[in-house]
């Protein structure tokens, strides 16, 4: 059972999200304003924060910045479409993921599961990861697709490990570049795109419609494992 | 000491009285030597020249010499001199008196000039402070003439400024005296300044109002009591103040436009949020309902309607944004590859059921555009292709560059659009009569066209060789 705080100024959204999460067996508390949420989170004990972006008073971005001063708990943002720049700002400020209104409950729950799982220490250290017909063996540093061994360049392997380390999470271009190259300086998103394209051609069944390595347009990439 | 006694007009009388008084005093003192007498007289010459300057100084020197001869050189009380040596001594005395008088007057004159310059500088500084405190053109000009009038101590001031039509007009004046417009024109057109003795006393000055190497107008000052340099300084100040006022206005307009646009963007974002939030609540409630009681025909219908509503809201918001010109495109150098990738990621799901071919463009192909807007346009084109061509028919996305343009090409193998309709489908709310069974608002391609045009590009619709529609989004190529 995880303890989740839901922040939205709209009562109907709080109710819908609460119902869905409680059905999954989580303990849910709600807050109608950012300032209230900060106080509750400071008191501690929450495993996940779900917050609206556009709220009167303290908005979602400000809330993320405040919370990140004292807490590493995963944060999921409820946004509306269109504002890619705001999404990048959110993620770079410490939010972990977002869903777009009107979101489906199934999508919301899947993102929630991914965020909660990621903070479970067992996932990051597992030697084997499977998705589709692909098996990644961290110990022998091999990748197989079906029966064939796939040769990955060091950069591709680095990208794959980064993505696998946070299943379900969005990586902004900048975050991925500094994770894999050590610094975002001197690397362009186009370089990243070329390596990502090559990685997809090696691992995805249909690289034009990738199932596992998803593009978040103008934001970054997300690894979606087999549910 | 009364001030009138120190004025230069009183100078000649004053120096006569002073030297006379000193001579009388020396006559009364018993037995001073000639040297003492000479020195005391030289002091009186020095004082005369210091107070009343050169003319009275010379007069004092001559009077002192004559008096010295008459009263003290034997035979006394005559103008004759007995001892030839005394003739030489008197000559030396006269020379010394003249030199002392001259030096004293020069020193005094220099001091007076310095004092006047200091005062002018202070006045200029005060004037500049007053000018730069005022940022409004009309009120600045109104007060500027009066302030200059006082600072220059003149009879009349006119500030003339060049008009947009190339003429020269009086923008502000401190009185009604007529000025020589020909000289003002000359100052403005040629940059020639003129100054000559004024009918009001002092000088009349016509100067250009400079601004860098250009001129914005001219300044006419009648009966000026201060130096011409001071007037030049004032003209320079007026030019600078006008320029500053112009920049302040430009900056203010830009700031207002920015604030207005920011407010509209915020309003639109809030509108989007406020429209989508209730839809999100309903969709969540339906999903929860299905999860608890299992999906039904009714819940499926609600879900479909909500999806349509969401789409319509998105389209209408986009139309509002485009037609109110909120949020101009934020253009940046973007690779064709990135655009294709984003469009596929965003809209690939909408193509489900259609075989989808993407020709990955070369890496070094760039356009200058708002990436999110071009992606949106590409996506709308792809959705359109998917919606109007039968399932299982392929859709292809390719990129065709030439020297000047990058064309993003979407080809389907649907029924195609008749040649005479191709222009119309890019208009608002236009749908082909043959497609009325397929739900749609008739806004998709209109939005796509507007988005592409906002980014300086064009949409072209043609027949695809495969039999369907070919839609090209052409944008200017950059290196």
Radius of gyration of chain A: 18 Å
The general outline of chain A is globular
Radius of gyration of chain B: 46 Å
Identify low-pLDDT runs of chain A: none
**Proportion of residues in extended strands of chain B:** 15-25%
Structural class of chain A: alpha/beta
Assign an overall shape of chain B.
rod-shaped
Largest sheet of chain A: 5 strands, parallel
Order of helical and strand elements of chain B? HHHHHHEEHEEEHHEHEEHEEHEE
* Tally of helical runs of chain A: 9
Please trace the helix and strand order of chain A, writing H or E for each element. Answer: EHEHEHEHEHHEEEEHEHHEE
Low-confidence stretches of chain B: none
pLDDT averaged residue by residue of chain B:
86
The strand line-up of the biggest sheet of chain A is 2-1-3-4-5
Q: What can you tell me about this protein's structure?
A:
The complex is a heterodimer of chains A (227) and B (479). Chain A has 227 residues and is α/β, with parallel strands linked by helices. Chain A contains nine helices and twelve strands. Chain A has helices at 11-23, 34-43, 60-67, 84-92, 105-118, 121-125, 154-165, 173-181, 189-203, and strands spanning 3-7, 27-31, 48-52, 75-80, 97-101, 128-131, 134-137, 142-145, 148-150, 170-172, 213-216, 220-223. In chain A, the strands form three sheets. Chain A has a five-stranded parallel sheet, with helices on both faces. In chain A, a hairpin with a 2-residue loop joins strand 6 (128-131) and strand 7 (134-137). In chain A, helix 7 crosses helix 8 and helix 7 packs across helix 9 (189-203). Chain A starts with a strand and ends with a strand. In chain B, helix 2 runs antiparallel to helix 3 (34-52), helix 8 (228-293) runs antiparallel to helix 9 and helix 11 (371-388) packs antiparallel against helix 12. In chain B, strand 4 (203-211) and strand 5 form a beta hairpin. Chain B is 56% helix and 16% strand. The radius of gyration of chain B is 46 Å and the shape is rod-shaped. Chain B has twelve helices and twelve strands. In chain B, the strands form two sheets. In chain B, strands 6, 7, 8, 9, 10, 11 and 12 form a seven-stranded mixed sheet that branches. In chain B, strands 2-1-5-4-3 form a five-stranded antiparallel sheet, with helices on both faces. Chain B is α+β, with helices and mostly antiparallel strands. The model of chain B has no long low-confidence stretch (mean pLDDT 86). The chains are: A alpha/beta (227), B alpha+beta (479). At the A-B interface, helix 1, helix 5, helix 9 and strand 11 of A face helix 8, helix 9, helix 10, strand 7 and helix 11 of B.
């Amino acid at each position: 059972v995880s303890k989740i705080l839901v922040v939205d100024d709209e009562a109907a959204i709080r109710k819908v999200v609460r119902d869905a999460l409680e059905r999954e067996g989580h303990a849910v508390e709600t807050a109608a304003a950012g300032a209230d949420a900060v106080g509750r989170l400071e008191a501690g004990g929450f495993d996940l924060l779900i917050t609206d972006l556009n709220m009167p008073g303290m908005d979602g971005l400000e809330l993320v910045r405040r919370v990140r001063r004292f807490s590493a708990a995963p944060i999921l943002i409820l946004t509306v479409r269109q504002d890619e720049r705001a999404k990048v700002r959110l993620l770079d400020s410490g939010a972990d993921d977002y869903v777009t209104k009107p979101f489906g409950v199934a999508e919301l729950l899947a993102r929630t599961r991914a965020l909660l799982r990621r903070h479970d220490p067992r996932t990051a250290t597992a030697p084997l990861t499977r998705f589709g017909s692909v098996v990644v063996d961290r110990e022998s540093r091999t990748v197989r697709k079906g029966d064939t061994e796939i040769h990955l360049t060091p950069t591709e392997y680095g990208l794959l490990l980064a993505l696998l380390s946070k299943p379900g999470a969005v990586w902004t271009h900048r975050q991925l570049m500094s994770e894999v190259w050590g610094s975002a300086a001197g690397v362009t998103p186009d370089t990243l795109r070329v390596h990502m394209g090559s990685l997809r051609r090696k691992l995805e069944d249909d690289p034009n419609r990738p199932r596992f390595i998803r593009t978040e347009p103008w934001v970054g990439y997300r690894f979606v494992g087999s549910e | 000491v009364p001030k009138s006694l120190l004025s230069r007009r009183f100078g000649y009388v004053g120096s006569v009285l002073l030297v006379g008084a000193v001579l009388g005093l020396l006559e009364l003192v018993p037995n001073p030597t000639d040297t003492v007498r000479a020195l005391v007289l030289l002091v009186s010459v020095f004082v005369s020249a210091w107070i009343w300057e050169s003319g009275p100084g010379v007069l004092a020197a001559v009077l002192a010499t004559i008096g010295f001869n008459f009263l003290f050189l034997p035979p006394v009380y005559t103008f004759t001199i007995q001892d030839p040596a005394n003739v030489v001594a008197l000559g030396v005395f006269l020379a010394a008196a003249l030199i002392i008088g001259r030096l004293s007057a020069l020193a005094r004159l220099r001091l007076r000039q310095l004092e006047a310059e200091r005062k002018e500088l202070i006045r200029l500084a005060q004037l500049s402070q007053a000018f730069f405190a005022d940022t409004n053109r009309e009120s600045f000009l109104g007060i500027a003439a009066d302030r200059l009038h006082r600072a220059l101590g003149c009879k009349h001031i006119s500030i003339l400024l060049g008009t947009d039509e190339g003429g020269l007009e009086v923008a502000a004046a401190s009185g009604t005296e007529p000025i020589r417009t020909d000289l003002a024109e000359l100052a403005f057109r040629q940059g020639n300044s003129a100054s000559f003795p004024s009918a009001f006393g002092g000088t009349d000055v016509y100067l250009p109002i400079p601004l860098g190497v250009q001129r914005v107008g001219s300044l006419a000052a009648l009966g000026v009591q201060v130096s011409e340099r001071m007037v030049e300084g004032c003209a320079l100040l007026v030019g600078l103040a006008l320029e500053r006022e112009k920049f302040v206005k430009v900056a203010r307009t830009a700031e207002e436009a920015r604030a207005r646009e920011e407010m509209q963007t915020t309003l639109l974002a809030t509108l989007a949020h406020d429209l989508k939030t209730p839809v999100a609540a309903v969709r969540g409630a339906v999903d929860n309902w299905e999860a608890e009681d299992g999906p039904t025909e009714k819940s499926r219908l609600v879900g479909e309607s909500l999806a349509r509503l969401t789409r319509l809201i998105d389209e209408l918001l986009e139309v509002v944004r485009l037609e109110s010109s909120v949020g101009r495109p934020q253009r940046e150098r973007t690779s064709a590859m990135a655009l294709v990738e984003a469009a596929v990621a965003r809209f690939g799901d909408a193509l489900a059921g259609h075989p989808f071919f993407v020709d990955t463009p070369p890496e070094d192909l760039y356009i200058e555009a708002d990436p999110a807007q071009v992606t949106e346009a590409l996506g709308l084109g792809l959705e359109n292709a998917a919606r109007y061509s039968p399932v299982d028919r392929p859709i292809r996305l390719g990129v065709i560059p030439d020297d000047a343009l990058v064309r993003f090409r979407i080809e389907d193998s649907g029924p195609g659009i008749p040649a005479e309709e191709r222009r119309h489908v890019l208009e608002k709310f236009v749908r082909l009569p043959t497609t009325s069974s397929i739900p749609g608002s008739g806004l998709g391609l209109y939005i796509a066209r507007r988005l592409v045009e906002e980014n300086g590009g064009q949409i072209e619709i043609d027949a695809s060789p495969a039999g369907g529609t070919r839609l090209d989004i052409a944008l200017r190529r950059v290196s």
